[in-house]
Amino acid sequence: MTRIEEVATKTNAFITIVPKSTQKIDGPLAGKTFVLKDSYVTKGIKTTAASKVLEDYIPQYNATVYKKLLDAGAVLMGKMNMDAFGHGGTSENTDFGPVKNPWDLERVAGGSGGGPAVAVATDCVDFAIGEDTGGSIRNPAAWCGITGLKVTYGRVSRYGCIAYASSFDTVGPTARTAEECAKILEIIAGKDLYDATSSPEKVPSYLKNIKTPAKKLTIGIPKEFFGNGLDKEHRKLILDAAQKSEKIGFSVRNVSLPILDYVIPVAYIIAPSETSSNLARYDGIRYGDTRDKFTSETKRRIMLGTYTLSAGYYDAYYKKAQQVRTLFIEAYTKVLKNCDAILMPVNPTPPPKIGKLINDPVASYLADIYTYSQNPVGLPALALPCGFTKENLPVGMQLVGKMFSEDVLLQIGYQYQQVTDWHTRKPNL
Amino acid sequence: MIDVKKIAKLANLPLNQEEEKKFSEQLGQVVDLVSKLQAINTTNITPTSQVTGQTNVFREDKIENDRVLTQAEALSNAKKTQNGFFAVSKVFE
Predict the structure, then answer these.
(1) Is A45 strand, coil or helix?
(2) What are the counts of helices (DSSP H) followed by strands (DSSP E) for chain A?
(3) Which of A285, A289, A377 best tests the B interface by mutation, with the highest count of B CBs <10 A?
(4) Which of A271, A312, A427, B63 has the most CB atoms less than 10 A away?
């Protein structure tokens, strides 16, 4: 059995193991192996979004991110398990079996990109491309002990990415280190004529820039994000990381970001609204199976979004949420005037046991509290490993920056990873 | 009380009675959770619907041959086709 087959069997991380291809291996990523979350269309290779509705779907075209990686010489090894259509934070809302955490197979790997994170954490591949709408790259990166980058909205083309919430969705890399994320980002970022929301903002030389000693950067610690809702071990480890950052030359200051009470209401009105519209295309006519085949969680989100957009409720819910979204932009802008990056948790607890959250929508939505405010605003966020709980479960933290400040975040991440070794540790799988 | 039957019809989601009951309760709880938003003052705040910073991104009205699917490709995932068309359930009596 190959390593991939072994991990696939033990963790359910893979939906499709891609057979060896005869593509050219030439370019800046020559020979580097990767996997894609199964929400990226790959011509001729089954793409399911982890849903029975698309279980037989074979795309007729390629996602831009996939094409760019192939052109750079990277080799696709698998299409990965996830929460169906991105709907979830544990990779249990899937028709292909829950994705198990390689650090403890009775616990969740995180979501919605559990499969990609497991493949990287278990050394099946060099890197993965995930998709982050409200933490779907960062959450599993933190719970699997690897690095994951949510990019600025529009930094990477979404063409060929099966949509969840079109104004929140981002395409991003996940790998062991910030350095590797920088290298991949250089290849995949940039304006794409096929995605009208992609940004014309110039793509910096991320890899070269992270090694340049940064001007003295300031990291903000928002007190509201370190309150009672956060597990005590997590709080200690993240604040230790802040102290470590000061020792290596970053400035740390306390800031206030008073938005936490409204994150879940804003996120869980706008995202389901957008998804109820995006998933209307699955009518079983041109592709896919019928709508009764959606998982319960997907049906819940479609219905929630239908409700919040419907006549009589639109103003009180959808429009209201978009107004509070404006207030979030103002709150983050204010804080980011006084610091270059905001340090905050990724998950409020260690990874739960499989089965605990899947039937409790309210509890599972509340667990997304630290990762669902950046997407409505469009800000980039880098998740980094920062320690382990006493039960040897990985803990992650995230740095949130101004729009298009991935180079700043990657610089801080790179420097932090020069003086710590959390990111080098591997599960005993 | 959320009218789950009506919402399911609007969303074209066929639900059985058991699902209707289960979702009615769960959706009620989630709507309570998100209704917290009513407490915030948003007078005169303009809604934000997208964060691209861009307006009116157009392209030339020309066919991009690279992206055109052949008829066979376009039909390749359909469960029911007929004479090169997608076959659908009739919508008229």
Answers:
(1) strand
(2) 13, 13
(3) A285
(4) A271
Give yes or no for B17 touching A (CB within 8 A). no
Amino acid at position A125, single letter: V
- Is A150 in contact with A413 (CB distance < 8 Å)? no
Going by their DSSP bridges, the two strands A218-222 and A33-37 should be labelled as: unpaired
Q: Give Cβ neighbours of residue A201 (< 8 Å, ≥ 6 apart).
A: A152, A154, A155, A191, A404
Instruction: Indicate the length of chain B as a whole number.
Output: 93
Which residue matches tokens 């509890």? A363
H or E element at residue B28 = helix B17-34
Residue-by-residue DSSP string for A364-420: HHHTTTTTSSHHHHT--EEEEEEEE-TTS-EEEEEEEESTT-HHHHHHHHHHHHHS-
What does the pLDDT read at residue A142? 98
**ipTM value of the model?**
0.96
Instruction: Please report, in angstroms and rounded to a whole number, the separation of the first and last CA atoms in chain A.
Output: 14
Helix (H, G, I), strand (E, B) or coil at B13: coil
How confident is the model over A186-195, as pLDDT tens digits? Answer: 999 999 999 9
Question: What are the Cα distances from residue A169, in Å, to A148, A234, A375, A399?
Answer: 15, 27, 7, 18
The alpha carbons of chain B give a radius of gyration, in whole angstroms, of 22
- Contacts with B9 from chain A: Cβ below 8 Å: none
- For residue A295, what is the enclosing H or E element? none
H or E element in which residue B7 lies: helix B4-10
pLDDT of residue A211: 87
